[in-house]
Amino acid sequence: TQVVGEPAAMAGFPEASQLPSQAGLPDPLVMLDGHRVTSKEEWLAKRRPELKALFQHYMYGQMPSPPEKIATTVARVDPNYFGGKATKKEVAIAFGPSATPEIYLLLVVPNRKEGPAPVFLGINFCGNHTVVNDPKVALPASWMPKNCPGCTDNRATDAGRGSQIQVWSIEDVIDRGYAVATFYSGDVAPDHPDFTDGIIPHYYKPGQSKPGPHDWATVAAWAWGLHRAVDYLITNPEIDKAKIAVVGHSRLGKAAIVAAAFDERIALVIPHQAGCGGTAPSRGKVGESVKRINTSFPHWFDDEFKAFNDQPDRLPFDQNGLVALVAPRPVLFTNAVDDTWANPEGQFEVLKGADSVYRFLGVEGLEADRMPETGKLIDGRLGYHIRPGKHSMGKDDWKVFLDYADRQLGKPGVS
Ligand code: GCU
Questions:
Q1: Where exactly are the transmembrane stretches of this chain (predicted)?
Q2: Residue 332, SS3?
């Protein structure tokens, strides 16, 4: 079942100051009015839609309904990628009101496969041209952060080509039988604190010049962009549409988990070191706080979320509720010991706080009551891993992602 474009945020939610303060992580099985969910039907028909509406109202903002149709154009096909192991395509995905920017999806599919391939989909930080060594891949034309390799005057240049190969480790993923689909975050929403470019301005109502207090902000727009990539992937016969895994690092990991929570076509999600506003508790006392993230990155969440800067305990949910929206599908949180900013311990508590929903739905949840030792993967429906080192994504992380996907989705067949 497709559950994108849920009903608009429910009218009549209280002001932040009117919500009760709750010190611990709120129980996702208890409705806003205090009623405890007693059946799967009630979870699906009432509580899930309510939780989605709450997250949109108080935190991420309301996402628009999905487009009725998308249009795709395939370019620069190369059937001899990685010495003939894979085929590359660049797919422009058009949607939305006219003149809305397109998403440029880089798709690399293994050539040796038994039937359609499972796929890892995710957004990249600095452009498709950075994740492969390929002079033909189109450079993004949109705004780019200065710290991206080869970026001049906030634009991509050829100098950035191939500079982030390890981050996506695409050849390794191909060797394990999975396809990779990725696009640049700026195709959807350039990561700066105004809403003048990207797709958001194209959805303004007449006369509107910035998002309203409950309209989608950048993280929701990125997540919605992932949904558009899914719209395309499910039409591609080379891709196993039942095995779409979404991965993202840090701010883009926040987008990954939001995307999975709001779209059941996503089979598995790995928000890597996603931290505050993604996988860490908003009530957490370690690392980044709600106030801090709203101050440094005011464009990531809706204006209403700022009302919780000094009172995160009044949020009527915490991030365990977001994980619960993914249930019963598999979720893996991956972390690094030195990345305390993302609160690895707090993230483990978030998984614990979602476990009851997995069990309620009749599947396994978090098969551990304490954090695993460093380097040991908990590979159940609710998975967890912490490695030595710092905030980054690379080859070693991909080994964990792939092991987890093999375990949860089944090893891909290689012909
Ligand atoms: C900052 C921010 C985090 C974010 C990270 C990243 O550190 O505070 O919330 O996850 O950037 O995206 O790398």
A1: none
A2: strand
Distance, CA of 272 to CA of 280 (rounded, Å)? 11
Q: Closest by alpha carbon to 123, among 246, 302, 232?
A: 246
276 Cβ inside 6 Å of ligand 1: yes
| pLDDT tens for each residue of 135-156 | 999 999 999 999 999 999 999 9
Spatial distance between the Cα atoms of 348 and 279, rounded to a whole number of angstroms: 9
Is any atom of ligand 1 closer than 6 Å to the C-beta of 250? yes
Q: Lowest mean pLDDT: which of 2-6, 98-102, 128-132?
A: 2-6
Cα distance between residue 87 and residue 96, in whole Å: 29
- List pLDDT tens digits, range 211-242: 999 999 999 999 999 999 999 999 999 999 99
Query: Which residues are designated catalytic?
Result: 250, 391
Tokens 């998002």 belong to 211
- For residue 296, the ligand 1 atom closest to its alpha carbon is 8
Atom of ligand 1 nearest to the CA of 288: 8
Please give the Cα distance from 355 to 359 (Å, whole number): 6
CA of 251 to the centre of ligand 1 (A): 5
- Ligand 1 atom with the smallest distance to the CA of 300 is 9
Amino acid, res. 180 = V
